[in-house]
Inverse folding.
């Protein structure tokens, strides 16, 4: 049996009782460690579960999936995922491959950022398409995520932006020389994400585009370590977000819709860096 188990968003104790009981009885336990991370290391998980935990990086999951599934044909194998098991397409692919091989699969769900983002007070059914913001590198600065945010704004919807994570990424030199050498881990901050968005906006303004769906003065919400004891939430303009430090990862960014429901505005007010400015911004845009 292959058990795909969500761990939630905070620490070792966020696993469900069902998930914990299954992990304790499994022969092999893998921790997927490249689409997201917990606030604790795998050593803490091993101590809590009372089981050895094998850290599964991208290379192991994508290249060694057959090995994991071969084990699951004869043993009880747990595949642990931060958040919910179906928060990334990689995990969907693993389940499909398991079923193709006739391996039984049981999924244990948990909280993910897709529902926990409700902690900032913006109503979940008022979100549009979720977007991912990748790190820009030399000669590669994609901006398609801007168009998706703009479309959501035009429909009156908020946008949850998931921010890039670089874990065990090979260096260009190692790829060329075919040797294993990895870059240090990087986790995009809300400030970095807001800065890239603002640069796209500025380029469009310089190109003479009119009627932009959002600008540096639009309202944004930064969230960090959602579900952890030191969770942080900040509401300010997109321009102000470029100078906001929310501390260690993981971060995510919300670009709000142009109109806030009165309850959303009332709840979000507690996180505003400038409450008077926030009330002025939302007062003109509240729903009737």
């Amino acid at each position: 049996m292959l058990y795909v188990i969500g761990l939630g968003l905070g620490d070792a104790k966020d696993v469900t009782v069902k998930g914990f009981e299954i992990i304790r009885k499994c022969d092999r336990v893998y921790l997927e460690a490249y689409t997201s991370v917990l606030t604790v290391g795998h050593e803490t998980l091993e101590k809590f579960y009372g089981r050895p935990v094998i850290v599964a990086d991208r290379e192991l999951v994508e290249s060694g999936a057959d090995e994991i599934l071969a084990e699951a044909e004869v043993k009880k194998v747990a595949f642990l995922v931060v958040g919910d098991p179906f928060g990334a397409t990689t995990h969907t692919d693993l389940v499909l491959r398991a079923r193709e091989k006739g391996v039984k699969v049981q999924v244990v769900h948990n909280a993910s950022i897709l529902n926990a983002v409700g902690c900032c007070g913006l109503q979940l059914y008022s979100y549009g398409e979720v977007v991912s913001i990748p790190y820009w590198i030399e000669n590669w600065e994609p901006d398609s995520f801007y168009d998706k945010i703009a479309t959501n704004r035009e429909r009156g919807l908020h946008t949850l932006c998931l921010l890039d994570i670089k874990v065990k990424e090979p260096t260009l030199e190692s790829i060329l020389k075919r040797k294993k050498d990895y870059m240090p881990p990087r986790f995009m901050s809300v400030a970095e994400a807001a800065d890239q968005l603002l640069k796209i906006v500025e380029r469009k303004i310089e190109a003479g585009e009119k009627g932009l769906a959002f600008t540096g003065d639009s309202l944004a919400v930064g969230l960090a370590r959602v579900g952890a004891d030191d969770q942080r939430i900040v509401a300010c303009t997109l321009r102000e977000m470029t100078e906001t430090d929310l501390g260690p990862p993981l971060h995510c960014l919300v670009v709000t819709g142009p109109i806030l429901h009165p309850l959303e505005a009332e709840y979000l007010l507690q996180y505003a860096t400038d409450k008077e400015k926030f009330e002025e911004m939302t007062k003109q845009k509240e729903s009737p």
Summary: The first strand starts at residue 2 and ends at 6. The two ends are 53 Å apart (CA to CA). DSSP finds twelve helices and twelve strands in the chain.
